[in-house]
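Worked example (supplementary).
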Amino acid sequence: MKSDYDVLIIGSGASGGMAAYILTQQGVRCLMLDAGPAIDFERDRALKAVYDLPYRGFGQPGRFPHVTQASEFDANTWADEKQNPYTYPEDDPYYWVRVRLIGGKTLKWGRASWRLSDFEFKAKDHDGYGDNWPISYADVKPFYDRVEPIFRVAGRREGLPQLPDGVFLEDDSPDSLSVQRFIASAQKLGVPTTKSRRATGALASSVNLLLPDALATGKLTIVPNAVVREITVDPKTGLVNGVNFVDRVSKRDYRLPARVLIVGASCLESTRLLLNSTSRPYPSGLGNSSGVLGRYLFDQIYVKNCIQCVVPEARGGKATRHLIGGGGYVPRFRNLKAGEKNFLRGYAFDFGSGGTPNPKYFPLYGDALFKELADTQNSGFNMTTMGEVLPRFENHVRINPDVKDEWGIPALHISQKYSENEYAMAKDATETAEEICRGAGFEVLAKHAQMVPPGESIHELGTCRMGSDPKTSVLNQFNQSHDVKNLFVMDGSAFVSGGSQNPTLTILSLAMRSSEYLAAKMRRNEL
Amino acid sequence: MWYVFYMKRRQAIQSILGLPALTALSRPGMARSGMAHSGLAPDGVAMAPAAATARTIEEFPKLTVVSTEAVADPAPTYLTPPQFAALRKLGDLVVPASSGRPGASQANAAEFLDFLLAQSPSNRQELYGDGLDRLQADAHRLHGKAFEDLTASEAGALLKPLGEPWTYRDATDPHARFLRAAKADLLEATVNSREFIAAQASHGRRAGGLNTYWYTIE
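After joint prediction of all chains, the assembly is encoded as:
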C-alpha cells in the first residue's frame, strides 16, 4: 500500500469537503478521490468578450441538451453529457446537471442557505404523509450554528418556526420602495417575507472554505481525475475493503484499500456507485438489503419567473436606486396548519426588483420593441417558485446495463414524475404571486405555472435515505449504512424529505455531524 | 463593386472599434487589381526594416493577432439563397438599425445564424427552413415578389404572430414558433455582436458582453 490513511473519501464538494475538514482536524488521515480535475484559477479562466466566442454566446448547439444553466462562457465547467450519459423514460425527461471538478457543485451553487425545520424533519407527524427523518431539528441545530459562520451566511432573523434563524452576518440593508410595496402587499395576505440568506464572499466553496484548512493539517491527500468504478467488500466480513477506480485521462485502472469509506459523490452519483457495487453479500447494490436504494428520488419544483412585472413608476428612465433594487424570499406559508389547501406541504418564492424584462414578453418587434425596452429599462420585478416535492417510492434510479460512460461504467436510468400534488402547488403559487404583485401596484407582463423538468433545479435528493428502520432505509441517522458499518454516504441522497429550502446548508451540517460521530467511533476503535 | 462594399464595411467596423491598424491590411485581390497603396515603396527601393529589437534566443515574443471577423466577412453556406435573403430581411424588420445602434444586418446576424443552424439539431433546422420558405411563399402569393423586396408594411402583415401575447408554452402553429425563435435569435445575435457592443460603448453606455471564460480544465 503506497499511501497511509484512515478514511477514504469519494467526492470533494459539500459533503466530502466537510468530512475532510472535520476529520483532519480530529487527527484522522484522509485520502480524497474526485472524478474531476482541480481548477487552476490563474490558468483556466480569462476575461473575454461574447463576440470573441465561437458561437457568439449561443453555445455549441446540442452540447448540453439538459443543462440549461450552461453558458458558452462556462461550458467547460459542466460535466460533458456525451462522456457521462444517462437515460430516462421517453416521455419523462430528467435534467441531470453535474459538475466534475474538485469542489463539485459548491463551485456553482446559488449560495441560498436556509435551515430545515421540524416541518420537514417531522413532516409525517405534521400531515401524515411519507416518513419522518430519524432526527429532529434540535439534533442538527448545533451544526447549522457552526456551518453558517464558516460559509459567512448573511441574513435577517425573523423568528419564523418554519424557517429557523441562524448565526448570520446581520443583513440590515434597507429595502427599495418597490420591495417595501411588495412586502406590504404580502403582509395583507398573511404571507411572510425575509431577506435572502446567502453565503457571502468572492467564492463560497469547498475549494476555499473547507479543503485548504483540511490540507493545512497535513492529514489530507487529494487525488483528482479518479473515477471510481465500484466499491469492493470483504466477503467474509461484508465490510468495505477498497475501491477500484480508473484515471479519467489515461483510463488506466487502479485499486485502493479502505478501512472506512465516505461516499459524497453527489446524490445520484453516490447511489449509482452503490448500485454498481454488487457482490455476493449485496447482489442488488452495496448496503441495499432494504431494497430502497435508488428509491424515493425527489427534488424541488421550480417555476422560473412565474411572474414578470414592471414597476410602473420606474418606466421612462425613473428606475432610481430608491425605487428599484434588492429582493428577498417568501418562506413557506401554506399548510403550516395541516390540510389548509388541496395539496400537501408548501412552497417558497425568491423575488427580485430590477432588471429589464426579457424582450420575449413584449408582443412587439423592430423600433417599437426597442422603444418599449428603453421605457422599461431596469423597471422589472419578478418571482420564482420553489416547492416541496413529495418523496415517492416509484420515483427512482436504477442501473441501465446497456449504456456505459466514457470509462465503461454502467449509466443510470432516472425515472421521476411530478404528481398532482406538485401541479396543484405550482398553480396556487402563481395565483398567489399575481395577487401579491397586483396588490403592490405592479403591472403584470406575464405569468405561468409551468414547472421545469425534474432535476433542473439541481436539488436532487433521496435514493439512499436515512431512517430508523433498516427495512425501509439505507442509512442510519449518522449517514452510516445499516448493512455495512464502515460505509457512510453523506450527500443529499440521505435526505428523507426536502421542503422547499435549498439543501446545501443541510448537507454540510449533516456531514459535519456524521463526521464527528465517525471520528468518535474511530477514537474508540469501534470502526 | 465587392471591393467598394468591403471597404465601406471594414471602414465602418474600424471606426466603431477604433482599429486604425486594419487600414494597413490588404486582401489578396487588391494587389492583383493594381490598387496603389500609399504606404508602398517605389519600384526598386527597399523598405527600411523597423529597428530590430534586441532579443535573446531564449525569448518567445507574443505576436499580436486579430480575430477572423475583424478582417473577413462571414460566408453563409447552409441556407438556400432565398432562405438566406428572407432571414436577412427578417433581421432588418425585427432588429433595424437606428442612430447609434447597429441592426441585424450590420451585425451580420443572419450570417451568424446560418453558421449556427448548420450545426443545430434537425428540429431547429426544420423550424427555420420551413419558416423561411413560408415567408417567401406568402410574399409571392400575396404580393408577387420575394420577401426581401416587400415594403415594411407588406412584410409586417406576414409577421402578425409576433404581435400575440407571450405564453410559456410554445405556440401550436409552427410558423408562429419559428417567428418567436427567429425574433429571439436575431436579437441575441445582434446584441452579442462586436458591432453592437462597440456602438454601445462609443455612446458612453456600459460596455457589455464581457464575462469570465473558462478554458478546458485538465
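Two points are worth noting when inspecting this output. The mean pLDDT of chain A is 97. Chain A has eleven helices and 19 strands.
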